[in-house]
């Protein structure tokens, strides 16, 4: 589906194709299982701890840790479960170590319209749900049951694509302090299972603690490399000037 804009409102056109594929900053998911606890039992491969379906959490974690940002696109959902998704994402990221600040991400619901609807598009008000949602379980929430009941009654509900966007880490990572230069790295997050992922083009890679240590050492090296080269050149100049060879 193509994401379009009209009167400053974004929407997707039904049966169209998005102009990008999965890469370092885009991930597509055809389900709504945000956290690992929401995965249904049938997706576990018998006799192993492997799953045929992966929770969205892994991709969010990878975008956070890579620091370049990215967006996870979830399959089309109806209007009734929008609040559930927002609450579920917030609950998930509150369980990361460290906890993810709200300013680091956003959850958007972009309408899916057919060509006839785009000419007379109106902004649909978001329903305010007052009942607590059922989280951290594959069982249906009350909002899912309401959506199914409405469907069987023939009550149409606006469709949306969920966009969970992780913002890039701000490049203010080199700070001059009273005790000299300091590096302010972006945090490395562990997900709800205590795992750590990084984004690599259209896939993610699980990092061990030692991998994170080596990654951080390389970041330090790259940060100070220009400074070290400058000092080295200055030392060579002084040696030539004072014949210290």
TrEMBL record:
InterPro entries: Schlafen
This protein's name: Schlafen AlbA-2 domain-containing protein
Annotated organism of origin: Acropora cervicornis
